[in-house]
Amino acid sequence: MATIVEAPPVAPAAPSSRGGLWGWLTSVDHKKIGIMYGISAFVFFVLGGIEALVIRWQLAVPDGTLVNEEVYNQLFTMHGTTMVFLFVMPVSAAFGNYFMPIMIGARDVAFPRMNALSFWIFISGGIFISSSFFLGGFPDGAWVGYSPLSTQSEVIRMDFWAIGLLILGVASLLGAVNFITTIFTMRAPGMTLFRMPVFVWMQLVVAFLLAFSLPLVTVGLFQVILDRNFGTLFYDAATGGDPILWQHLFWLFGHPEVYILILPAMGIVSEVLPTFSRKPLFGYQFVVFAGAAIGFLGFGVWAHHMFTSGLGPVAETAFGLMTMTIAVPTGIKIFNWVGTMWGGNISFTTPMLFSVGFVAMFTIGGLSGVTHSIVPADTQQHDSYYVVAHFHYVLFGGAVFGVFAGVYYWFGKVFGRMLDETIGKWHYWLMFIGFNLTFAPMHFLGLNGMPRRIATYGDGLGWNYWNFMATVGSFVIALSILVFLYNAVRSYRSGELAGPDPWDGRTLEWTTSSPPADYNFAEVPVVEAIDDFWYKKYGEDEDHLPVRLDTNPLDPSASAPQEEFHVHLPSPSYYPILLAVGIVTLAYGFLWLPVGYLVMAAGLGIMLWAIFGWAMEDIDHPMGDNGHGEGHADDGGGDDAEAELVGTSSEGAE
Amino acid sequence: MGSHPAVKNAVTSHRQRRLRAGVFVAILTLVLAACGTGGAQDGLSPASERASNIDGLFRLTLIIAIVVFVLVQAAIIYTSFKFRRKKGEEPRPVKQIHGNTKLEIAWTIAPAIILAGLAVPTVQTIFENAEEPVDALEITVTGHQWWWEYEYTDLGVVTANEMHIPVGQDIALTLTADAGDVIHSFWVPRLSGKRDLVPGHENTLTISADEVGLFLGQCAEFCGLSHANMRLRVYAHEPADFDAWVESQLAPATVVEDSEGWELFVNKGCTACHAIDGTEAEGGGLNPGPNLTHFAQRDTFAGALYDSTEENLSAWLANPSELKSMRPDLNRGMPNLGLSDDEIATLVAFLQGLS
Amino acid sequence: MAVAHTTSGGLDIRKTAMWSFLASELMFFGALISTFLLYRGRTNGGPDAEELFDIPFTSVSSFVLLMSSLTMVLAHNAWERNDQRQLRLWLLSTAGLGLVFLGGQFYEFSTFVHEGLKLDTSPFGSSFYMLTGFHGAHVAVGVLMLSAMSILSFRVGLTKSRGMNVELVALYWHFVDIVWIVIFTVVYLLQV
């Protein structure tokens, strides 16, 4: 805890380089962190996808023999865990990190080092869980980790799972606090809450959902770990423990989690549809309120995951009716997206295709969701392939389509070159066909009595045909991902140059250069409307049609070398990654007690070193002279000083 | 370009509408009919009152969902084609419409009304299906990793995996699992929805069968290693046939106490886990296995996974985990007893004699 | 300088972060307390709340923790007046009272263990130790932060212009205190 006035001698020099490997490892730039989140998420996406392909290959025919039950159970557990916690969540953090600050006209998030810490804790948690493969096998208790199955397994697999999720939870909580603070306090002048892009709104709702729901599963995970390692009796029915408690704690988190996964994609789609329809989002306030309502209601419906656990008819009725109400705000969103396209001048670029695909496929997932709220019907659907079909329509047809819409929309902004449109359309149509071929049949399979999470199924039950089709579909999806990877690599190297505003965009990120300068904006923008950039480009004629204005509303950095603008930025730091290494060391040590106590001690030592260094770090390494006053210089808690740097510029707003 | 485009359009759109409606009804009928496989585990072929209640409710919901689906998808497709920019066309300025409050209210209220309509039969069915059965046959179902134990509480019959019931009578199931076990879920799709068996809890579920026949089911809550192999069968009989079955189950076990097979059964420790009623084999213990009193009456074994043929039984006794993944080292499932071929043959004969 | 660069609605950046963190903590303790309420009667043949709890003793230690909130307020006050001497005094008193509370908890735990309630005795024991243990850990973290601030105030002084650490720690400390009031009421007073 030092001050500028008297930097103690213990404080090492902050890393000076912003480039190269060290530049990435020590970066506190929200854009670099966003890119790292995105790339790691895609690596996990591919891993989770390979797991899915093995699963589908096994189930292509009855009595499959590719893998045995032991391996199969590990595969579907890791497929779910990976896709939820290591792909969709971080990929939405990737978009949030990269674009949320730019879209509100900020130069970084509120706590840049904490942001880096979130990422490094996430990646250590991901590596921690995945490393179980080499250390006794993947977790095998399903992604919901129901007790007492999760506390029963004598091997350490489920410890890997529980501790790994705790680590990932810390990363998400830090991220959520950071995002809430950033959105509440760092918006550019004039960027009132109701001028924020819907994408930012959805990130805000997600941050709140994370902050309120993560602690609940955290308590459950601690109980599992204590039961497994210290003989507590939370889930031991023999002594009065209750396995159902876990289901409540898990789904109190798990249902909001579903919205944590889907709302960012809804945000992306709410940006893409207006841009390519050349119209504002229809019913902006309604879309925002619907998003918030979905988040709020999401806390009141958790028990609809437990309709077969014996809640009793009264609770079943209450939760069934609550669940139905969620369809209302969801419907509002869908209708407003169609309303956005209505009367527009739509260009079907790849991001637009993915967005329209999102709306169409998510509708199917939403409707099958309504059938779950019909409690008696749900007692047939629950834990059958019908449920698998439902949530893949929501999370793949929804979230993943939304993610790819975002990738195609913003790739040019992030990397300076556009993804190829022709290959992109191949990608889209292959994925669209493969997706429907894989998951639509699962509706039938579930209704025809096929439970989920089974390694093999018997012949003669009428499931063979659709299972085979689903397997074919899954490989079509895999092909579409290969097409995408080819497109990404090719376009990154030699794609068409993006320029600042390739799509004739409506929001602030399109005023910056592609990729944006380290400091995002040379001049902090002053916002006067929703879709501010659009209204700075276009006026209105007497028929209320937009007319291009003769102005240049781009940020000055879009047309001049970045070095010309002396904008003060927080320095890079070693300590976030060091702290994350300390945490994961501690976690590994815990798995092999009592020998592990030494490892744990080492982990704690690293953590203390990192925390001390973090507090002492001289974070005031201006890139250029900015003449900030002494007012900002305190740090103490760690991040506060950096917070004020952002937004302090030589050119400043007025 | 026709001379009266408006008239022509009206005619085609009327025809199209009728055509569309026809296609729609056809598809709907097709979908609803084609969904069912008619298989013994098919949830869309209900064979009991409660399962039919569920099925009817689901089909009602499905029809509404399909109507909404068609409307929304039609709106998306229509909008996409009507307002798309043709190839090579320059971007055209369009009115910047921000919304319409009346529309918003309309599409908030409309789904709410539909849902309210759906809520009524839903709540009715919840309470209907939860009604206490009258004159029911009571069976306690205990889920084990990875097989089912049935105890006919009033009749004194204990059996495994294969449940026998009389047609037309309510069967009141009490569902539970041992404290050291995990959660399972009892699911026979044609007879009812599923319900969990939770250690330390007693859940109830009422099933019944309207017709004589074999109904298949399996565990629906992931219960560890051999979850996929925890299957079950329900045989529905005419009441007289059912009574005969009960009588045969209550008959004393056909065990010759000093036969070679019995000696082997005792000496190899089978009695530690498996009970044969009326003998010193009481079973239970740390790792309870199915009651074998009338084993030869069952069609299947090992969680209803295999037919009880001599070949299968021999393979099973030679190495149980080869046929079904288990963890006998953790007291879950049958251990390999290291039997010789002769011993296996003797034991198989013994088991097949347990009629 | 001094033109507002951001639209923040007057929210302070670090306080916003602390408040959102504490909101999350509230859910954490909510889940712990719910677990305890579910398991309070499940003693598995071990000792129950009535046999174990020594209300007068815990009342005193609760009072001590309550008083530490008062000294925290005084510290905050001194910091606002930029009175380093008083600030130090009250920071250290707060930390000291926190330590007394922790000592009381340690004594209580060891008595309970002696009387037969361990982590693995019953769901009641498991949930009791988990809840009060996590609360104790929060107090301990608070004591650490208070000590660090006191050391800083000796070395460089904690002026108002140099940040809001005192205010943040105060927020955290009051939160931990309030949670204890709830725990004391729900766990101790309502059980006996």
Give an account of the 3D structure:
The complex is a heterotrimer of chains A (654), B (355) and C (192). Chain A is mostly helical and 654 residues long. Chain A has a two-stranded antiparallel sheet. In chain A, 62% of the residues lie in helices and 1% in strands. The N terminus and C terminus of chain A are likely disordered. In chain A, strand 1 and strand 2 form a beta hairpin. Chain A starts with 19 loop residues before the first helix and ends in a 9-residue tail after the last helix. Chain A has one domain: Cytochrome c oxidase-like, subunit I domain (Cytochrome C Oxidase, Chain A), CATH 1.20.210. The longest helix of chain B has 34 residues. In chain B, strand 2 and strand 3 form a beta hairpin. In chain B, 40% of the residues are buried. Chain B has 8 helices and 12 strands. Chain B folds into 3 domains: 105 residues, Orthogonal Bundle (Helix Hairpins); 114 residues, Immunoglobulin-like (Sandwich); 93 residues, Immunoglobulin-like (Sandwich). The N terminus of chain B is likely disordered. Chain C is mainly α and 192 residues long. Chain C has 6 helices and no strands. In chain C, helix 3 packs antiparallel against helix 4 and helix 4 runs antiparallel to helix 5. Chains A and C meet through helix 6, helix 7, helix 8 and helix 19 of A and helix 1 and helix 5 of C.
CATH T-level topology of chain A? Cytochrome C Oxidase, Chain A
Biggest sheet of chain A, in brief? 2 strands, antiparallel
Could you give the distance between the termini of chain A? Answer: 33 Å
CATH superfamily membership of chain A, which one?
Cytochrome c oxidase-like, subunit I domain
Percent helix of chain B: 25-40%
Instruction: Note the run of SSEs of chain B as H and E.
Output: HHHEEEEEEEEEEHHEEHHH
CATH superfamily membership of the largest domain in chain B, which one?
Cupredoxins -  blue copper proteins
Number of helices, where a helix is a run of at least 4 consecutive DSSP H or I residues of chain B: 8
